[in-house]
Amino acid sequence: MMSKYLKFILPVIIPLIILALPASSFGIDGLTMVEQRVIAIFVMAALCWVLEPIPIYATSLLIIVLELLIISDKGLWFTKVTSPDLGNLLSHQTIMATFASPIIMLFLGGFFLALAATKYRLDINLARVLLKPFGENPKYVMLGLMIITAIFSMFMSNTATTAMMLSILTPVIALFARDDLGKVAFALSVPVAANIGGVATPIGTPPNAVALKYLVDENNITFGGWMAFGVPFVVVMLLIAWLLLNSLFPAKIKRIKLDIKGQFLKTPKAIIVYVTFIVTILLWLMGGLHGMNSYVIALIPVAVFSMFKIITKEDLKKISWDILWLVSGGIALGVALDKSGLAKNAIDAIPFSSFHPLLLMVGASLLCIIMANFMSNTATANLLLPLVAALGASMHDVLPFGGEVALILAVTFAASLGMSLPVSTPPNALAYASGQIETKQMAKVGIILGIVGLLITFAMLYILNQIAFI
Amino acid sequence: MENINIICVDDEREVLDSVVRDLDELSELFNIEECESAIECLELLEELDANQEYVAVLISDHVMPEKTGVELLTEVELDPRFLGTKKLLLTGLATQADTIRAINNAKLDNFLEKVWDPAELLQTVKELLTEFIVERGIEYDAYIEKLDAPTLYRLLK
After folding, report:
1. A312/chain B closest Cα distance in angstroms
2. What per-residue confidence (pLDDT) applies to A254?
3. Who's near A287: CB < 8 A, 6+ residues apart?
4. A447 vs A419: CA distance, rounded Å
């Protein structure tokens, strides 16, 4: 009976114990009070994200509010009593600004594009046109479905893309014979492609946004720069996933026909949507030519769609604010670790330099993919990336292998590759709900693709390092 | 302002005329379309959809040649492009089996029997319009004088 309450008790008790311990018991020299509080917040966040006593976005909000209360310059009076070991209090503005960090604005822009695409049926009409050349052979129809799902999930949420593609697919899956494994392949192809596709752009999936927070200054990666390696990675992974699904679950049915009704909308508003979409993506890809960075460009569709009433105030309510808050909390956690000085102190205290840097990179990626299989990809990235970034910055040994950037990218990609269980990602949960897939079938495909994906990630980083991209 | 349509389907011209006459008060703000068969209605729906116009209310007779009203309404119910379109069956000749199918498959929003009371028809359509506009997130301010106030208050609460 007790175990039922543990998930509520542990996230409260353990951080309190950490706060009560003497500073000397952490094995970090000169640990300040603020740093000790940051450890407590970090542990609380980790426990809340793993055990989920409260919704995962609520954990993010809790992080921000606790930071404001106990480690900010405008926090509770007794947390600010001056003493030699108090440490650096963070500015409350810096903590609050995580709600409106450029990364959040980039995502907001992505949300506006996705919302308009759905509202003006750009998504479904593109799917209809793009699927046509793939004919009626089940193998190639599936390849088409996967390519389109992956392309959409680069710019729309993986969940929304999966829901849309599954709704096209469900009436077709019903036509398969009871013992035809092909329906498993089809039902799995959509979430797999959506999970993989998100890797290709900075706005494809929230872990990428979290990674951008740590890719700044000389490590900055532009939108086009990210796609230059993200897209080839996705292409290779999709091909492998397609071959794998076809060999594991071959379809017996000879022909398959997807029937999507409708036509492209030709109203002025619809045309504004098409043009804005194309212009935004082109500006993102042209990076350096016009002097605007991807964050600035992301706000252009926000303004245009609002001006022309393409996104109305009712539509604004449909934006996934929870995702934005979830990412904000991760950024705030990173800010606290960094600005308090804890990240650097802690990394210095652990003898990482005695490990081989490659072992570190592989170990961190494996830990990330394992965590991402059991919990939210975004929460995993929120927890691991600040640590990994601090580790990368302090360890000069990783330099010959691509340095900090390689370490961050390896962990970020690993977060998206956790897809072996229905609980791993929302697309998996949606596909599982179709009732066509057994958990062990999903696990088989997910584990193989996870391992293969990590190997390809390492190969990609090796190549990028060889050509001096990172 | 958005183009919001009310479609009336009946194979008898006189009936169609009188439905349209009863709804005349709404024609200032909404388009009232007339169709003499289910097929004609489906063609009109395609055209309206391509122009991104809304179909708020679909009023259909049941007994018609080629395709019955219940078949038409079921088809519209299953088409994701017309999510939220309010469906009203206006007929005097539906058997119990027809009615059951209409409710279960077409998810009918209202059922009126011929001969109808003009005031009741108008009131019903106003309520359905209000529901459609609020549910679809259309800015209601411009239409407020023709909407049903109690329904509006209930939905905005």
Report:
1. 8
2. 86
3. A222, A223, A224, A225, A294
4. 8
